[in-house]
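S1.2 Input.
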Amino acid sequence: MILSLMDTRASPTALRGEARRLGPFHWVFLGRDYEQCLRAEKALGGIAERIHAGADLDRAAKRLRRSFMALLAERSRGNDTLEWWGSRVAERNTMESPLFLHCCYVFVTLDLAEKREGNLLVLCESPAVLSTIANRLRDRRGVTVRCRTSLARMKLWARGWAVIAARIPHFLLKCGRHRYAAWRTRRLRPPSIPSPNAKVALIQTWVDDKCFGADGRFHDRYFVDLPAFLRRKGVEVFTIPRLFNVTGDLNERYRWLRKNGGFLLPEDYLHLSDYLAPIAVFLRQVFTSFGVMKLDDVDISALVDEQRLYQDLVPAALDHALFRRIASAGWRPTHYYTTFEYMILEKVAFRAVKRFLAGTRTIGYMSFASVFPNLLCMFVTPEEEGVVPLPDLVVCNGSELARIMTSEGMDPKRIVVGAALRFTHLHQAPERPKSEAPAAEPTALVVLPLLKSQAIELFNKAVAALGDSGIKTLVKAHPMSKLTAKQLWDGRSPAGNVQFVDAPMPELLKRARVVLAMGSSLIAETVAAGVPTILVGSEADLNFDPLDWDLGVDRRIAYRPEQIREQVESIVPDPSAPHDRVARDLIAGFFAPVNDQTLEAFLAAPPATGATSQGVGGPS
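S1.3 Output.
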């Protein structure tokens, strides 16, 4: 067999030339850029048959996730530094870093080369993946490897270093704008420090335009009713805002925060020298090699080394400095709350609070409907308890989510079940009144994920499946995304039955007969709302399915447009009957009601230290 390895950015001319040299062959696309995939299909269509590797990729991810997490857990031991905890490798956030995906690419290709007969063309986005495959198979009898990665590798690293160089001035400019806006508005409400004897809670949360209410009130999309509950309990509450996707005049946003009060603005405490620390950490990260690393006896060192190109200048070191500065200024909070997705900012924040505010109880809130098995940063393995910087408590939305986290290895004494603050609508309206039944006109709701590549893939597949079907198709973008319709559809105008909407999810779910989703925790919410939901699987990226556990839920998965259309047309005539029981079960297991009892979980006493637990299960 001839195994030809090429970059996904190869031109159509180069692809057709390689096709002539290969003779009869199959080809597989392993890259996150769906537009490149469409171009490759156009170039090779009618010449060779494509291998759709989505299911193979799913199997590889299930096989490798445990050993991959164990490998990085071992690297965490004795590596308690900002450089390590602030790195994309240690974070293992599979929505930001492609390291785990690229490992899966390697194993999928090795399996194809072993099990399939005939010549194979592999198009992959990562030169490191291609060189790893080539080195693994070069001496295998019966396999001739043709690997053309030198030019692609040079281009990738040239682009990568250019992006790395641009990140430093971008970071300084962004920080400068925020610091200037905070300075200009400081006189409106100078910072004040609560009494050291007061009960004080700090809530660090993400803030976008929708949080600045037209009614003059602050609307926290994550912690919702928690601040009001804490105040009723005699706790002073201060919000540390992480501003993102904020449009308009930044000075006006800071003026709004000053006038409303109740905010601890980092710029009031950070010194100018503190803004240099993230740059120093970033430079050490991109110039440090991780050494030799093996996954299931396959050397993945080249893949890990390539991750330096994906390292962001994450301002985690600013949080480290912030908590040191507010401790020096006299802040003595009793509680610190933030979201628990266990990404870089959260790891560093928990570490800094424990170091500089030793008497402060730390609580992470899992504010989403469920967790994805493939979002590896979410999980704490038994080996990591006592090693990674964790909060004292993790508050889950429901008992089923707590069970999943425990089964993956987190100490059960660290977990409490609390209120599902963002999902009160599921309890307020478990069944649709007749006046709110799905629209007479068949309507599909397409919920786009945050990741740009997956949003483009889902949108293109949905339009290809339903664009001429007569089914009204509503498209809702992720609230943290800035993608436009032209970016999603390559500058073209989609069919007339496709409409972009920005209404709240509870309102849209009342109108939809079926939901199409990819890479979104909203899948659990839509199923819990009683709306049939189809997971549109990616054929070259990890699938982020919050129901991919042993839940007894009949999951619908479709990879290609024709599969999507077939499933939608089978659902639309009568969408309701089979889903009521599943909805009730999911609500009971994942969405605890909001009341004083469930809110009390946020004030629960921390567990005794030193306990550990063993994982007892895993994804289905």
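S1.4 Remarks. The two ends are 35 Å apart (CA to CA).
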